[in-house]
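Handout, section B. The chain below has 320 residues.
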Amino acid sequence: MQELELPPVDKIEVLSLMDNFTDTITPGNAIARRAVRDADPFLKPALRAEHGVSMLITITAGDEKTTFLFDTGVTEDGALHNMDAMDVRPGEVQALVLSHGHTDHAMGMLGMIKRLGSSRMPIILHPDAFLQRKIIAPDGRETNMIPPSLNDLERENIELVIERGPSFIIDRRVLVSGQIERTTEFEPGLPGQHAEVNGNWEPDPWVYDDQSLAMNLRDKGLVVITGCGHAGIINIIRHIQGQTGIDKIHGVLGGIHLNGRAFEPVIQPVVDALVEINPEIVVPEHCSGFYATQRIAAAMPDAFVQNTVGTTLIFDAAST
């Protein structure tokens, strides 16, 4: 694999606009700055938690700050509601990166585009994000995974960057991984998923459109951000290490898809491999699941950080 140069950044701030969990009194720390509660918090709209992900990410390099969006949540207005509840008024958002096409990451896209404006905000995604998909449970129940609509996006006159391979945004300081190579024996993708291909429904467990982000925090190593992590968090980290030639992992945050009975047998191998990689900060979110989150917290107590809706995670090269 040819190494891709990833210039360093000085600070990364990740505001959780949507996640599965909210708690207004969870204490913060040097990494996690919680949503500010004023004197009359119960007179304002409460933060909303939903089964979905949306992050507003700001990077600082020298004197320059740049903001972009990663995923948009499961409802058209959920992440927007939380922005309003926190009085968040982002300036110009440079790009929107879609981790993959599942509904809980993409359904808020049109609402976010209408709020932020589309004229200078390209959307970066994998071509498989537009596939019609469904999950078939062992008992035969089906759940449709509604993808983003290519026609709707084209009507909005949005610049679409559709890539299978890696791409960059923000002066090449943010790597969008593209399709992740599957190399581990213990990360199964998403059993039960099917996709419609040429009019036929076919097994599609690998979720090849699942892609992640990476930034190089000056002198500290990579910060890796996932949506669901269907490719497997260990596959993702190893792939990005190979892409960048940077082995040191400073932070891992986002979905580590280990929720549900099908994933319980692989939780421990994943946790063991994550301990071996030894990131300084680990923030499981969204679909990571209670049991996996608890095992990560127990195995890596100094690295573990609990996320909540409204939390800003701060990765600062200047901190000790």
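Note. The chain has a mean pLDDT of 95. Compare this with the example in section A.
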